[in-house]
Design brief:
This protein is an alpha+beta fold. The chain is built from 5 helices and 10 strands, in the order βαββααβββαββββα. The strands form 2 sheets. A 7-stranded mixed sheet has the order 1-2-6-10-9-8-7, with helices on both faces. A 3-stranded mixed sheet has the order 4-3-5, with no helix packed on it. The longest helix is centred in the first third of the chain and has 14 residues, at 11-24. It is globular and about 45 Å long.
């Protein structure tokens, strides 16, 4: 597995990089990207942005809003949220199989002492029954990307607004 730590903290650049890799590069092994984001809200492919965000709060606080190609709900990112993105060939992965995609994350968390970390529901990760991660997927041709979040020290006051 190859990994790369993205130098950008701009969600727009990072999502564009995911798409570039998806459409323009071939890999002998799975690729995983890690990145942090400045405050931003990312809405799923099929969501109505006006229904998902507090526009006045976003404008007042200069929070970037963007759309991703994958489905799922709206998410808030800030520098306390570690993002990951796996890019894989469909020969080694099945669309919708979140448990397999995040298995390396769960293994790493167990090795770091979070031994109760587990996959819950369709695409969430929890520790002691508390959600700290969600994931979404996108498929194009022979590739899938699955991306998600690890809420390490997110400003929860902003999330609720």
């Amino acid at each position: 597995m190859f990994y790369y730590v993205m130098p950008s903290d701009d969600i727009r650049r990072n999502l564009a990089t995911e798409e570039y890799l998806m459409y323009n590069r071939e890999f002998d092994e799975p690729l995983v990207l890690f990145y942090y984001e400045k405050p931003s809200i990312i809405v799923g492919h099929n969501q109505n942005t006006q229904e998902e965000v507090n526009q006045k709060y976003i404008d007042d606080n200069k929070i970037v809003v963007t759309r991703r190609r994958s489905g799922g709900g709206a998410v808030y990112h800030d520098l306390g949220n570690l993002c990951f993105s796996f890019v894989l060939d469909t020969k080694s992965a099945e669309f919708g199989d979140f448990k397999t995609f995040v298995a390396p994350i769960i293994t790493a968390l167990h090795e770091m002492g979070a031994t109760t970390a587990e996959v819950s529901g369709r695409n969430d990760m929890i520790v002691d029954g508390k959600k700290f991660s969600g994931s979404a997927m996108f498929k194009h041709g022979s590739k899938i990307y699955a991306h998600g979040t690890l809420m390490l020290d997110v400003d929860l006051d902003v999330v609720t607004k």
